[in-house]
Amino acid sequence: MYPSRKVKLGVLVSGRGSNLQAIIDASEAGRIDAEVVIVISDVADAYALERARKHKIDTAFVDPELYTMQKDFEKAVIDILEKYEVDLVCMAGFMRILSPYFINTYRNRIMNIHPALLPSFPGLHAQKRALNHGVKFSGCSVHFADEGTDTGPIIIQVVVPVFDDDTEETLAARILNYEHQIYPRAIQLFAEGRLEVRGRRVFCKKSEKERRDEKEGWVYINP
Ligand code: GAR
After folding, report:
1. For residues 142 and 112, what is the distance between their CA atoms, to the nearest angstrom?
2. How far does the centroid of ligand 1 lie from the alpha carbon of residue 114, in Å?
3. In 10 A of CB 155, how many CB atoms?
4. Residues near ligand 1 with C-beta < 6 Å?
5. Quick check: helix, strand or coil at residue 200?
6. 162 pLDDT exceeds 80?
7. Closest to 5 in 3D by CA, of 216, 191, 223
8. How many whole angstroms separate alpha carbon 115 and alpha carbon 66?
9. For position 3, what pLDDT does the model report?
C-alpha cells in the first residue's frame, strides 16, 4: 500500500521557480501525494519565494554571505528542513553544489532537475552548450543528487529535439515544458515508494495497478 500521509517536500531554489510552480500545481491538483512544506532560497529576492508566498507556503532565505564555511550554511538549511520534517529535498534551479555532509544527511532523498540529457552538459548553460555542440537531441533529467555536479543516479529523462532555427531561448523553453512534467512524475514515484537505487541505477518498481492489470493478462509494452 502507498503511504496514506503526503510526502513532505522541501524545495531549494535560487531563481524564477517555474519548476517549483509545477510541483506546487501538481500538489494542489492532487496529481502527486506530496506537499511543499518549505521553500528555501540562497537568493534574497528570488522570484520563486514570491510564488511560494502566493500559495501560502512557508519560505526561508538563508544568506550564504553569513557563513564562511559551506558546512555552516548547509547546517542552517538542514536545521530548517528538519524543523519541517521534510521527507524529500527537491532542488529546483538551486545553483549550488551540495557537500558530502548535506548529501549524506539526505542520501537518496535529494532530487535535482537538469536541462540536458545527462551525463552530457552538466553544470551551467546546458542548453547553450548543447546547441553550440551541434547535438540533434537534448532533453532533461531528474536525478538523485550526489556529491558531483549533476552526476547522481538518473530517475527520469526526456529526449527533446533540437531544430535548425533554435536559439538558446527556444530550446530552453521546449526543454522546460518537459521539466515541468517529469519533476512531479519523479516525486510521485518517490511518494509511491517505487524508486530503488542500486549503485548508479534507479529502478522503478511496478505500480499496484500495473501488477493487478498484469494478473488479468494485460501487457505493458513500455512501462
Ligand atoms: C531549470 O531549467 C533547471 O533545469 C535548471 O535551472 C532552471 C531553473 O528554472 N537547473 C540547472 O541547470 C541545474 N544544474 P526554474 O527556476 O524556473 O525552475
Report:
1. 6
2. 6
3. 23
4. 15-19, 48, 92-93, 113-115, 126, 150, 176, 179
5. coil
6. yes
7. 191
8. 30
9. 53
Ligand 1 center to 4 CA (angstroms): 31
Nearest CA to ligand 1 atom 13: 114
Distances (CA, A) of 89 to 34, 76, 103: 12, 14, 10
Looking at residue 223, its pLDDT comes to: 40
Distance from residue 178's CA to the centre of ligand 1 (Å)? 12
- DSSP β-bridge partners for residue 7: 34
Helix, strand or coil for residue 73?
A: helix
How many CB atoms neighbour CB 11 within 10 A?
A: 29
Which mutation among 11, 112, 114 tests ligand 1's pocket best, with the greatest number of atoms within 8 A of CB?
114
Going across the sheet that includes 88-91, the strands are 58-61, 34-41, 7-13, 88-91, 110-114, 137-144, 154-161, 201-204, 195-198
Which pLDDT score is estimated for 220? 64
> pLDDT tens, 5-43?
899 999 999 999 999 999 999 999 999 999 999 999 999
- Angle of the 168-191 helix axis to the 126-133 helix axis, nearest 10: 120
Q: Which residues are catalytic?
A: 114
Report domain extents, the chain: 7-210
CATH T-level fold of 7-210: Rossmann fold (3.40.50)
